[in-house]
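Morning run. Coffee first, then this:
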Amino acid sequence: MADGSDTTLTADQTAEQAPNGLVAGIKSFAAGHGGAKAVIEYVGKRGARIVLVGSDGAWADQFADGTDVARQACAKAGVDVENAWERELMDQMRPSNDLWRSMARRTMAR
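And here it is:
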């Protein structure tokens, strides 16, 4: 037996716990928008981005230390996680006028 091979860690022991503030933020968004769905995106060293899409079309994002933490936070908050950006979810999103204006400024500044 190699050194250290006699000890094993389960996924529960190695996974970080979802911060209460992250879970509360997800719950708050879902409650304020008639429910929500989430898409989790890996963003490298930064961790994971949780994009929340409310039933009313509003959307927001949160950041977690990793995809495992993001999934755990969504599960604790009672928000379903979509595996990918499905057409129905994209069609449900309604960007605000402020977002459209900021996107236009970025395009014109190039």
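Residues 17 and 69 are 6 Å apart (CA to CA). Good start to the day.
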